[in-house]
Amino acid sequence: MNADSLAAPLVRPLWRDRALVLAGIAMSAFNLRTAVTSLTPLLDTLGDTFGFGPTMTGVLGMVPTAAFAVFGVVTPAIAHRLGLERTALLAMALAAIGLFVRAFVGDTAMLLVTSAIALSGMGMGNVVLPPLVKRYFADRVGTVSTLYITVLQLGTILPALLAVPIATAAGWRVSLGAWSLIAAAAALPWIGVLWMERYGQSRQAKALCQAHDEAVASGDPAPELDGAKDGANGSARGRVWRSPVAWGLTLMFGMTSLTTYSMFTWLPKLLTEAGGSHALGGTMVALFSTMGLLSALFLPALAVRIRNPFPIVVACGASYVAAFAGLLLAPMAAPLLWVAFLGLGPSTFPLSLTLINLRTRTPGGSSRLSGFVQGVGYSLSCLGPLLFGWLHEATHGWEWPFAFLTLCLLALLYGGWLASRPRMLEDTW
After folding, report:
1. pTM of this prediction?
2. Where do the domains of the chain lie?
3. Terminus of the chain with fewer CB atoms < 10 Å: N or C?
4. Ramachandran sector of residue 64 (left: φ over 0; alpha: ψ -120 to 50; beta: rest)
5. Both ends of the chain: CA-CA distance in Å?
């Protein structure tokens, strides 16, 4: 029996009784990176406006991973108290407020504060989406993971691609603030889910109870009932940090995030220093994200069919090496090729998110693992953009920054080896 059959004993039509939840997951996923990639192409413009230099650019690049780390740790407790659906609503509300207020800031300090507010909501969303998939779509883990990770990548690409054109046409404030409208819209499905639940008009709870009873009767793993805190066997009460599955996923996820956010922050500057334009920098960030979209389209579905996906991790490592070499030695010789390789490397990101569900038995275990992987993983990665920038500023070159990323790549490969072995979290903690 493969991992997919463990996670999906009963297959139902995708939209039946759970359309609002599916819409909420997809719309929330779109908003999980807009605060980051709408900002990085405008950092030179904002630096001129507010008078900050490379060090503050590195700090701004560190804020996303720091916020994601903090809320990766605290979100499981919030979700345990409020429920997954209310936590998803809170996440989108914080994202919308932070993005809206950020458009009106007048100094660097407020730019940092408002970015942190938006990113706190996005950090909460990072953690709750995998267990929401596990709870409502245990029969469609691969399909729904593909959907939400693909939409997440679209939400990464479009702000990077549109940031400079919108700023040129309407100003940087409009360019930063427009994305708050989409975050506000993403809150609406969760309001609908909670309203239906509150007034007893939701068919989702009844359908889930029926699926649970059928699974128990047949001896299959049962989906968690709405409002349940832990699996009946207490598996969600284990110590996640004792599991090699958790640490492997954490290393793979953390080092992928470190590299990704270092490149989100510094790729535009690297290319402009090599002779490219600011528009080229934004376009290359968009291409970087677009390659992630390609991997999001097929990797989750592939992961549920492969017992040990470590060869995928090795292929991602080879793509990183090719990209680092090209960007270091001849960045303007073939920037499209180097950035295409660079964008294939983070295919370990959708793989990590999919394995969170494939390596757990219950939504409770998925929530705990998701919080640990993202909390500790983002903690490991949050200094990446700052260290990358500091090494560049200290050496006036890019050799040492890329040497640093290469060491991180070795840690990623080791983590991928641990995470890819076919075993369950609950059997290893």
Report:
1. 0.75
2. 3-427
3. N
4. alpha
5. 22
